Amino acid sequence: APTGRQTYKIALIPGDGIGIEVIHEGKVVLQKLAAKLNTFDLDFEDFEWSSAYYKKHGKYLPDDALAQVKKFNAILFGAVGAPGIVPPLHWNWIARLITKLDVPDHISLWGLRLALCQPLQQYANVRPTRILRGTTSPLRNCKPGDLNWVIVRENSEGEYAGHGGTSHTGEAWSVATETSIFTRHGVERIMRFAFETAKSRPRKKLTVVTKSNAQRNGMVFWDNVATEVAKDFPDVEVDKMLVDAMTTRMVLKPESIDTVVATNLHADILSDLAAALAGSIGIAPTSNLDPTRENPSMFEPIHGSAFDITGKGLANPVATFWTAAEMLRWLGQPEAATLLMESVENVTEAGIKTVDLGGSQKTREVTDAVCTEIQKLA
Ligand code: ATP
Ligand code: MG
What we know:
Layout: E1 6-15, H1 18-37, E2 40-46, H2 51-57, H3 65-69, E3 74-79, H4 92-101, H5 105-117, E4 124-130, E5 148-154, E6 158-167, E7 175-181, H6 184-199, E8 205-210, H7 218-230, E9 237-242, H8 243-252, E10 259-262, H9 264-277, E11 285-289, E12 297-301, H10 318-331, H11 334-349, H12 363-377
Helix pairs in contact: 1-10, 1-12, 6-7, 8-9, 10-11, 11-12
Bound molecules: adenosine-5'-triphosphate and magnesium ion.
């Protein structure tokens, strides 16, 4: 364009359940922001890849899905997962019928999320956590500012490499293996990314998490690579922590933590704990990044499809707003990202919150309030 104004192409994958609701709200807020700031444009396209798509086509993604999404600057993803309906125990045959219609969790996970993350080389999963103004932590003495973390999760290998197998199925001596894979390439690149992340933050502190006392191969390797990479980042203060001790530290000394790097499995668990400690799963964002920027990165709220609240206007859209802010930051629009978070926190501080945050507002009311704030601030 003659003005030099950037247009970002955003692929929207709403998915299932409240994913559809929150992605809609996210789009509304992003459009408002772009219209008000007038410094960049957003061009959205919707993709219907979901459990409904799976039931129709027998797969979550069409064969050319990767080629399609590669044309975009970023992917904004809602949630996948079919309704996990749990009928009363005595409804035996109905239960069996429902289970047949349902899509098991591991199918949707491998069929959609991982089917995009892995080939798009989104090896860094980043989960910022802090207490937003007007929200409270379940930790009694924790004030906003005491808890301000970024958890960096290795997103391509480790315990979720999908390497393993079963034998003697059905026999009393049946076995199953699930091998963790740690490659030099994989560990070094996530370690460098984590050090860069720590370095970019005011406290320049990185905690390297392992279980190297019990797992003497992969985890010791992980620690050794961390020590090596640390030499290139002399201004970053590093400490190492076993994952079990880390959970206690998160609860008892949250202010001692800044940036954390952990394996696929460990960070998966730690970041759920982090989301709960920050107040609600309904506010937590996550970014699946390809730091080489060869492929589009994918941004999503960490919560799932939550069919128990679908269609009721109860879904908290804040996780998706925060996710959208992270996406804007990655795309090179930090001012827009800051403005969006400023607007969101003005709204939570004013007590305009959904039920999961102890409020009584509906999804749409929160979105409207954020749009009003954007109008005022921008
Ligand atoms: P999935 O199977 O796709 O992971 P889920 O039904 O297990 O989805 P989660 O996202 O794991 O749902 O969340 C667990 C519970 O937390 C939900 O059942 C819901 O009640 C609540 N919850 C999750 N996300 C939100 C949100 N955005 N707003 C309000 N409540 C939420
Ligand atoms: Mg779930």
